[in-house]
Design goal:
The chain is mainly α. The chain has one domain: de novo design (two linked rop proteins) (Up-down Bundle). 63% of the residues lie in helices and 0% in strands. α2 runs antiparallel to α4, α2 packs antiparallel against α6 and α5 packs antiparallel against α6. The longest helix is centred in the N-terminal third of the chain and has 30 residues. The chain is globular. The protein starts with 34 loop residues before the first helix and ends with a helix. 22% of the residues are buried.
């Protein structure tokens, strides 16, 4: 009986050995540094918008949230008074510290509706922009200018309210005072950011003064707060001294 031929194993031919100096068939390696790093930096510099300043973004987020919470607390108190005019307000603490008279005054409805409604919308927008900037978003120069203009209007309005509270209404609204504090900080740091990044253009002869302001920004902000605190302290000195 004949034995059938078995199938022969298939052998793949080995590639021919390349000379030691021949690198033509080797895969090209992609080198990412340092040229890739420089390219990434160039792309970031060429991206539209003002470079993201994360610390300023955090300031915007924190001041926006705190301002919104204070405005919301005032809104809740105002709504409770509308339902029940005899409702005791949580912010009416003493003859000097209280928000009831401020909420019912003409100063508390400057545009025909409660001022705290302005705060609800404005501070929510500030907090949203702050989160975006802290996450690395690059806002357009016009948006930074609009934010600065809004902060300027807010800080002027706040100082008018301070004068009205101290010398007309003769009361300090605690929630309003919280809005005073965060609005001053918001205006201060947005303005410094815009000056530092050229959003607000500074002439060459004023750059020395700008450098001095940037180096002493904490001291100047503390002096601003100290001036407001001194006005509050001296205006109601008889009341504060009676507590001692």
């Amino acid at each position: 009986m004949e034995i059938p031929d078995l199938p022969q194993p298939r052998h793949r031919p080995r590639p021919a050995a390349r000379p030691a100096g021949d690198r033509s068939a080797r895969p090209a390696c992609r080198v990412s540094a340092p040229g890739g790093v420089r390219a990434d930096a160039a792309r970031r510099a060429a991206a539209p918008g003002v470079p993201a300043d994360r610390p300023v973004g955090l300031v915007l987020a924190v001041t926006g949230v705190l301002g919104w919470l204070a405005s919301f607390a005032l809104t809740v108190e105002d709504w409770r008074v509308l339902k029940d005019p005899a409702h005791p307000l949580s912010c009416d603490i003493s003859p000097v510290i209280g928000c009831g008279s401020a909420m019912a005054s003409a100063q508390g409805h400057l545009l025909g509706f409660p001022n705290m409604l302005l705060g609800l919308g404005a501070f929510a927008a500030v907090a949203a922009l702050g989160v975006a900037v802290a996450a690395g978003a690059r806002l357009h120069r016009r948006l930074w200018l609009a934010l600065n203009a809004g902060a300027l209007a807010g800080v002027v309005f706040v100082h008018w309210l301070i004068v009205q509270s101290l010398y007309v209404l003769n009361r300090i609204c605690p929630y309003c005072a919280a809005v005073w504090v965060v609005t001053v900080a918001l205006f201060w740091y947005v303005t410094l950011h815009n000056l530092r990044h050229g959003v607000i253009r500074v002439p060459d002869r004023a750059r020395g003064a700008l450098r001095l302001v940037l180096e002493t920004q904490w001291l100047l902000l503390g002096a601003w707060y100290g001036l407001i605190a001194m006005l509050v302290l001296t205006r109601f000195w008889a009341y504060w001294s009676s507590l001692v």
